[in-house]
Amino acid sequence: MVHEISNFILSADIRETGGELISIKDKSGREYIWQGHPDHWGGHAPVLFPICGSLRNDQAGLRNGKTVKLLRHGFARKMPFTCDFAVEEKAQFTLVSNEKTLESYPFPFSLVIRYELSGASVETRYIVTNTGKEDMPFFIGGHPGFCCPIDESAKFEDYLIEFEHEETCTIPTPVTETGLIDLGRRKNFLKKQKVLNLTNELFDQDAVILDHLHSRRVKLIHKDKTHGIELEFCDFPYLILWSTSGGAFVAMEPWCGLSTCNDEGELFEDKRNVMLLKPGESRTYRYTITLLFEF
After folding, report:
1. Residue 19: which CATH number?
2. Helices assigned H by DSSP within 11-168
3. Cα-based angle 259, 179, 109 (whole degrees, multiple of 5)
């Protein structure tokens, strides 16, 4: 089932499967969220929980002797959420652990996804609660995909990524065969620049993993600055840029963690930047999408 929220500038649709944002339209009817296509990618803006990316051989050990067994990006994005409410400019969806989730991730939890419109912005808020009796390690991230071109009369190469700050950074190498990351092979990527022009070749080696980025606001904009979107992601240390060959969309993904890296061992709790919640503790993560017009 799909639920709509709206205000005087935009409307947003969220479906109960995955609690996923599947549409943002302005009042002219222009769509900003990628609508999915089998030739490219069928998603829209799924939540990644309780992992971001992949585990080595899809599993990892735990200090208590149990095992986490999770496919890429975890299970939440494919599970039915309960709609708590969807009224005017706000909606909330909840997933709680069950017998099926405990088989692959042996920790009781509650995951709430809350959406709220404010002017030309859509805020997505993830609230993770440990409902069990032992410390809970986890990761969470967003995977919003945006139409590119946003304007159907434009081309993929007419758009660019603009960073909040001037950036100089290297990026690690994704291992496409395994979904893991080789931190030992880094290449120069940005050098004193705020702008990254989009090209089809940019994603030849899969995703661009920005693990040393200073900016916490990025824009996907048309080169003539007539329209675009801004993503603000202060609660997330990593940003992943991804598309498929031939363009058509760009995913700008705020993550709390990364796929298993070549320098990591087999314990889930030892993964880079793992989040830990004590019994009864909650933590909130937020990112905001803002539509830009004639800026």
Report:
1. 2.70.98.10
2. 99-104
3. 45
Query: Closest Cα partner for 95 from 159, 147, 20, 163?
Result: 20
CA distances from 221 to 23, 225, 245, 280 (A): 18, 6, 20, 42
DSSP character string of 164-212:
EEEEEEEEEEEETTTTEEEEEEEEEEEEEEEEEE--GGGGTTS-EEESS
Residue 280 falls in which region: left (phi positive, over 0), alpha (psi -120 to 50) or beta: left
Residue 16, phi-psi category: left (phi > 0), alpha (psi -120 to 50), beta (remainder): alpha
Residue 235 domain boundaries: 2-293
pLDDT tens-digit readout, 187-224: 999 999 999 999 989 998 889 999 999 999 999 999 99
- The amino acid at 245: S
Residue 282 has φ and ψ, to the nearest 5°, of -125, 155
Report which of 269, 278, 210, 280 is spatially closest to residue 50, judged by C-alpha positions.
Answer: 269
pTM over 0.85: yes
Partners of 209 in beta bridges: 240
Q: Say how many domains are in the chain.
A: 1
Phi (first) and psi of residue 109, to 5 degrees = -155, 165
Is the previous residue joined to 149 through a cis bond, with omega within 30 degrees of 0?
Answer: yes
